[in-house]
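Sample pair:
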Amino acid sequence: MAGKVLVTGGGGYIGSHCVVELIEAGYSPVVIDNFSNSVREGDVPESLRRIEKFLKTSIEFHELDLLDREGLEDVFKKHSFIAVMHFAGLKAVGESVQKPLLYYQVNLTASMNLLQVMQANGVHNLVFSSSATVYGDPQRLPIDEQHPVGGCTNPYGKTKFFIEEMISDQCKANKDWNAVLLRYFNPIGAHISGLIGEDPQGIPNNLLPYVAQVAIGRREHLSVYGDDYDTPDGTGVRDYIHVVDLAKGHIAALKKLQDNCGCKAYNLGTGTGYSVLQMVKAMEKASGKKIPCQVAPRRDGDVASCYADPRTAAEELGWKAEFDLERMCKGNVRICGAGSPLTQLASPVDDLLQCPSFTPRCSITLLFCICLF
């Protein structure tokens, strides 16, 4: 099935890691991004520039917002895509509670435009970046794909649920459509090259980048949002999955489309839940630093516990998470400690990339050692 794959939001955290895996698997990604969740380096996202340097290849990029229907049509007219990976959208739970109309406007309209343009141009294969937030406050744990969906606790989760429904209805109405809905749990970590990862320029919305920034001294303390949940230590419990494992799941999903699967949903998680305080201890071990914490009020839209039953993905996609918690945490500390890592490469990696004898695929062990200090 190797061919051109459109990657929306391909300059962001998860999208950029999937671009790496697409290239490694023999596909030709074409990326569109509006820089809302990525850092600009000239005319392209910094993440893509690094990938090009690392993999010694070129990546076609179009600066485009999915709300620009005409611009999206132009991209489809220039290419014959075998499939689309859809990551683009607003993604912060807390912000969605404060700005619900913005989330509904951007996420739903963008996805509607994409589906309509795909239909008009005969592209009927889709991998959608969904979320475990579609399950709402879990009725049982671990969460399998048969768990009820739609009882979402925040507008972000509702947009993911609504988009899933749009895609499902499109597949039911058009038997030549195939879609895989990947319900992520909590992606963390960084690529083992040390080149790309999650290191927000502002205040992080996700736990691990925040903890990592405290560990390296960029922030004074971690705010723990609630210590009175019905969990063993009172703090929220989540299923943390390494972003590279997540990206490999997208390649498995892309291959699943060849089976004319209709519309299928899969959980991508490890099956193990860790509390906020457990993650703090793991990050203290990874960084060798004490991480000060201050308890803050619960954050609107959060649930107490959420972790996956990933067996269906293992059985039907042949996919399983491989990274353990220690490797995930060390990757986060490494990317946050690189010195403005979204705008400047860490010097050890730059030195290697400039070495004529350096070849990424045969030197991955060396780079992994760098990531772990």
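The mean pLDDT is 89.
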